[in-house]
Specification:
The protein has three helices and 42 strands. It is mostly beta strands.
Length: 739
């Protein structure tokens, strides 16, 4: 059922040395080279004439999977994995096409890491290039084809090739051109030169790799230029792993005064940046160019030639290579995401304050039904501004971050909560300071926010000079002061929107896109539901998800006494008690404090049970996909929310393959806190198994239970002291509640 164009494409894939491919590679000429179909799925079929393997709807139906598993592999050096494939479908089935996924499976992990996914149909073969970082751990490559809608749906694999080196490197000697593609222009384009290629309009060079007419290179010629500044672009594969070092290549320019040869980077958001330009006319010899190149997030390299007219000559390109070592005489301030981030659990990390006095204090509270804890775990530390004895009118507290190298794009994320202010404008602002502290620029400030709610902010910025991020808290007047909380600051390279286009982290589910691979035994009004925003019933359930930073400080009884009690419970990192003057009715008028009737902005998604749809004692069960059994310990982390006077029971079970009984791993009973709290569970299982989240409805409709940010990790939990403390809540009685 494959298109006839496939057979034509196959002829182009007969590469020299195909019978001597490196480990992890296969041209599917006579066999599958040790790649095996998984028995529990549809089989991949080797074409009778060789050249490719395929799966189509003559062997299965929509939604069924074919899984191909490689032999054990190891990439002790940086490697590039290339996959030549085709997805076909009928025109009426474009709404639900077939999908091809590629995973990496490590021997000590119970889950597979998604590296790449595609579902775009085509009438010819396509190339995917994936960088594999060097590692001493053994792994397998797992290729999964999922059949889409239609009677002609099919997926074909023509070649898998794993080679040492980087995917942006190329000598253009192979027919697939290392995944480089030409951006089509009606008049000027990049072509393959060398070999039997001849051109009567210009004298093309010999290639650089072999220094003979047998080798190949890429070139673009001006002979067909019809307009001023016509542009030809040669685009590299997208980098898929962070890298930084020296990018080098050889080039020739004929008549350099009539053309401009430049090198750009382009990220997934479409942002271009010029990193090199030929600054002198070329000569008949190959010229070496070395360019400092940094790709901390996915980006393409674009070789661009702009011609001023048809007499601009030609530009030739060959032997693109990359080294993780910086170019000669290159010194650069390196960026570390770890050093630029902080959750304040241990100290201030690399953040510091004004010399004239602290404005931010590291504090923690014991969360309950009236006050929220920190954002990181619900039980840890965060920063609080304007809490030294009394709020001081006009006081500004500055928190400085570490120095950030210039000319890089950054994504700043943090969580904040505001308490008590009448007017929220500028109560918290973020500035960018240049290193000399002369130039400052405000890049973000609070305009309006629900009071007492952990909110997430994210800001993308880029400056040419080294800078620092500064958080500033302002109390404008005595009559309008309050509290500002800050937690979980992270700074990463790239645009904040870039992460939306990346595969989800392995073994992790935030429920932002869907329910991931979780399933339910039944789906009805009493099942687990995916939701965003607050739950329908008042005084129970979260106001929003944990991922985007939502928790709520609610008040019961006299709100001013409650706020005073909350502030009095704060513990400074230096073990000093902080005092806060009691709020009076004239200080913060009633109605400006958060209460249960206030709603939060709609944010991200979480999973929960709606108690008003259930009866007392009714269960809802959420099941993980089957996880592989491996030796050693595993760590399961997730956040849970159990707020409401009638809250029931939340349990986590381990279900082993072929066992009828389930093992209890963790449990919480009754109302826990108004905050999202973190759970850490360490367990071992060498057989295939599932993790089950079971929620049981309590005695009243105010018993909503929610979970979010589930994550499976190989190895023991790194903070088991927290697990012991949190697990003590169910140690008295592990039996089921009798309803």
């Amino acid at each position: 059922m494959l298109l006839r164009g496939v057979l034509l494409a196959l002829q182009a894939l007969q590469l020299a040395g195909a019978l001597d491919l490196p480990a992890g590679s296969c041209a599917f000429e006579e066999s599958t080279c040790g790649f095996d179909s998984v028995l529990a799925s549809l089989p991949w079929i080797l074409n009778e004439e060789g050249h490719y393997i395929y799966v189509d709807t003559s062997f299965g139906k929509q939604g069924e999977k074919a899984v191909l598993l490689s032999p054990d592999l190891q990439a002790e050096e940086w490697s590039c994995l290339r996959l030549v494939y085709q997805i076909t479908t009928s025109s009426e089935s474009l709404s639900d096409p077939s999908q091809l996924n590629l995973y990496m499976r490590f021997e000590d992990e119970s889950f597979d890491r998604l590296l790449w996914s595609a579902k775009e149909p085509s009438d010819s073969w396509l190339i995917a290039s994936l960088d594999l970082q060097n590692s001493s751990k053994k792994f397998k490559i797992l290729i999964e084809g999922v059949l889409g809608q239609g009677n002609t749906a099919s997926i074909a694999l023509f070649e898998i090739k794993m080679t040492t080196g980087y995917c942006i490197e190329c000598d253009f000697e192979e027919n697939h051109l290392c995944g480089f593609v030409n951006r089509w222009n009606p008049n000027v384009n990049w072509f393959v030169g060398g070999g039997s290629i001849r051109n009567v309009h210009s004298i093309l060079p010999q290639d650089h790799t072999f220094k003979s007419e047998l080798g190949h290179y890429m070139y673009v010629d001006s002979v067909y230029v019809k307009h001023f500044q016509e542009v030809a672009q040669l685009i590299s594969p997208l980098t898929t792993a962070p890298m930084a070092g020296c990018l080098s290549f050889y080039y020739q320019i004929q008549q350099g005064n009539d053309n401009v040869f430049s090198l750009y980077t382009r990220d997934v958001a479409g942002l271009y940046e010029e990193i090199w330009k030929a600054d002198r006319p070329g000569n008949a010899a190959w010229n070496l160019a070395e360019v400092e190149f940094s790709a901390p997030y996915p980006m393409e390299v674009i070789f661009e030639v702009a011609f001023n007219g048809p007499k601009g000559g030609y530009v030739a390109l060959d032997d693109i290579s990359f080294s993780p070592v910086h170019c000669q005489n290159q010194t650069e301030l390196l960026f570390s995401a770890v050093e630029a981030s902080c959750n304040f659990e241990q100290d201030l990390c690399n953040f510091y304050q004004d010399k004239e006095g602290p404005g931010w204090t590291r504090v923690k509270v014991k969360p309950n039904m009236y006050r929220a804890g920190d954002h990181t775990t619900g039980l840890g530390y965060y920063l609080l501004a304007n809490t030294k004895f009394t709020s001081q009118p006009g006081y500004i507290g500055r928190l400085y971050g570490p120095s950030l190298p210039g000319n890089l794009q950054y994504c700043l994320r943090f969580h904040y909560a505001i308490y008590g202010f009448l007017k929220m404008s500028d109560t918290l602002a973020v500035y960018i300071f240049e290193e000399n502290h002369v130039v400052q620029e405000k890049i973000w400030s609070v305009l309006e926010s629900p009071r007492g709610v952990w909110m997430q902010a994210e800001i993308t910025f880029k400056k040419p000079m080294p800078t620092k991020v500064v958080f500033m808290s302002l109390c404008k007047s005595f009559w309008d002061c309050g509290l500002v909380a800050l937690d979980d600051i992270t700074i990463q390279l790239g645009s904040c929107s870039s992460s939306e286009k990346l595969p989800p982290p392995p073994g992790e589910c935030t429920f932002e896109q869907d329910e991931c691979t979780f399933t339910q035994e039944k789906r009805n009004r009493s099942s687990w539901h995916r939701r965003r925003g607050e739950t329908p019933t008042s005084y129970t359930g979260p106001k929003g998800d944990h991922t985007t930073g939502v928790g709520l400080l609610q008040f019961a009884g006299d709100p001013f006494q409650t706020l005073f009690a909350w502030a009095s419970s704060l513990e400074a990192a230096e073990q000093q008690r902080l005092l806060l003057a009691p709020f009076s009715g004239s200080f913060v008028p009633e109605g400006h404090l958060p209460d249960a009737s206030q709603s939060s902005p709609v944010r991200g998604y979480y999973m929960y049970i709606e108690a008003s749809h259930m009866v007392y004692g009714q269960k809802a069960r959420l099941l993980s996909r089957p996880l592989r059994g491996v030796s050693g310990k595993h760590c399961l982390t997730f956040f849970y929310h159990m707020y409401g006077g009638g809250t029931g029971l939340l349990s986590v079970y381990l279900k082993k393959e072929e066992d009828s009984e389930e093992s209890l791993l963790w449990r919480r009973r009754g109302e826990q806190s108004i905050s999202w709290l973190r759970a850490l569970i360490e367990y071992s299982c060498e057989r295939q198994h599932q993790i089950i989240f079971e929620a049981i409805r309590g005695v009243s409709i105010r018993s909503d239970i929610a979970i979010d940010d589930v994550k499976f990790q190989a190895g023991p939990c790194g903070e088991m002291e927290d697990t012991t403390q949190q697990s003590s809540g169910y140690s008295e009685d592990l039996n089921e509640i009798e309803y």
